[in-house]
Structure formats: C-alpha cells, structure tokens
Design brief:
Layout lengths: L3 E4 L6 E2 L1 H13 L8 H7 L4 H11 L8 H15 L5 E2 L3 H10 L3 E9 H12 L6 E5 L10 H10 L6 E5 L2 H9 L3 E5 L6 H5 L5 E3 L2 H18 L1
Parallel strand pairs: 1-4, 1-6, 4-5, 6-7, 7-8
Antiparallel strand pairs: 2-3
Helix pairs in contact: 1-2, 1-4, 3-4, 5-10
GO molecular function: phosphoglycolate phosphatase activity
Keywords: Hydrolase
Protein name: HAD family hydrolase
Length: about 230
C-alpha cells in the first residue's frame, strides 16, 4: 500500500527550466561567457546548484573552472531574486495532488534546490501547508541520490519506506528512490528522456500525472482486497 508520495520539484512538479536558465545566464554574464540554452539547462541540473554551475561553466568555455568559486555567490544572489521567473506547474499536477489527498495519501517534496527557494516555489504555487513535508538542500544532509532526505521525510511522517512512492524526472531521482528502497516513478514531462529513466529500472514510467493516480489507486485497492 502507498501511504506517501515523495515528489522531486524541478521537472516533476514545476517547470523551472526558464528560471534556472535565466539565473545561470545572469551568472555567466558576470564573466563574459556565452549563455546556455533551456535544452542545455535540462541536462545540467539535478545535482544541486554547485554541480549545475560547474557544468554550465564548462559548456560556456571555462573548462578549467577558473570562475567556479566566484560564480557560486553570484548564482545564489541571482537565484534569490529570480527563482520564480516563468515558473509554472505542469499540466495535471494539481489534479494529481488533489486525487492523492482524496485517497488519504500523504504528499511531500524532496529537492536538491536550496531549501529556502524550494519552500518559496512550493508555497507560491500550492499554498503554505499543502504538502506534508518540503525538504530542499540542507546542511548536514547529503544531496540526492543519497537517500537521507527521503528517510527523514518517512521518519517525520511515521511511514515505512516500502509504503512510499518516489517520483522524479532524472536518473538522480531514480537512484534516490532505489537507494531508499522505495518504488520509483519516472516522469516523462520533465527534463530528461525515457532512455535515461529506463536505464535506472524504475517500477513505473508515466507520460501524464493522471497515470500516477491510477497506479496508487490500483495498488491500494489491491492491498485492501488482500486484507
């Protein structure tokens, strides 16, 4: 039975690619480097902003990462101002969340986005307290694909790992679910393609949020019949 769904944020709940691209390019401007495109952004995000900037700098021509350390505070300053630029929920996400709540399933967010910005993103589009738990990157907790954040959410809600469904759009997310011993769902509306997701062998791959509601419904109905 699934009692909890943990969602990745960027590329799963919210389409943040234009905000991430804009902030990255503002940072690259500080060093006179060329911009990255939204399609390039989709490939460089997912492992936290530090790795994102490393990858962006290499793409922009700074292969020796001369500007890496200087880029980090600039990125965070820009991100604090523009983390909501052109952000919007993916089609069907609001309906999926409503369906899960109707079924009595808890919902949580686990992101490698800095914690404060993760909170701002979620509360802006879904309201304060809509999710049971929201966790961004926090000092002392290893980033995904380490399972520590997922474990912390389960402990906070008193839910076992095997009762959790983990949803995301990248190999980092699939590895997180696997490392946490949770069933995983790869979503195709986000930043990466089917081939990347299939390479991590998730239990499910879905093309639309409505499919997730059906997965949870069938699983929980089956559990009820077995009881």
């Amino acid at each position: 039975m699934y009692r909890l769904c943990i969602f990745d944020l960027d590329g799963t709940l919210l389409n943040t690619v234009y905000a991430l691209t804009y902030v990255t390019n503002l940072t690259l401007d500080a060093f006179g480097l060329r911009h990255v495109t939204p399609e390039e952004t989709k490939r460089i995000v997912g492992n936290g902003y530090r790795m994102q900037m490393k990858r962006a700098l290499v793409l922009a021509g700074d292969e020796k990462l001369v500007h890496y350390e200087a880029s980090l505070p600039i990125y965070m300053e820009n991100f604090s101002k523009y983390c909501l630029k052109d952000v919007e929920p993916y089609d069907g996400i609001r309906e999926l969340l409503a369906s899960l709540k109707e079924m009595g399933v808890h919902v949580a967010v686990l992101s490698n986005k800095p914690h404060e910005q993760a909170i701002v993103n979620i509360e802006t589009f879904f309201g304060k307290g809509y999710f049971d738990v929201v966790r961004g990157e926090q000092a002392g907790t290893p980033k995904k694909p380490a399972p520590d954040g997922a474990f912390a959410i389960c402990r906070e809600l008193g839910i076992k790992q095997e009762e959790c469904l983990y949803l995301g759009d990248t190999n980092t997310d699939m590895e997180t679910g696997l490392n946490a011993g949770m069933d995983t769902v790869g979503v195709l509306w986000g930043f990466r393609d089917r081939e990347e997701l299939e390479g991590c062998h998730p239990q499910y791959i879905v093309a639309h949020p409505s499919e997730v509601a059906e997965i949870v419904k069938k699983k929980n109905e089956s559990h009820g019949r077995m009881e």
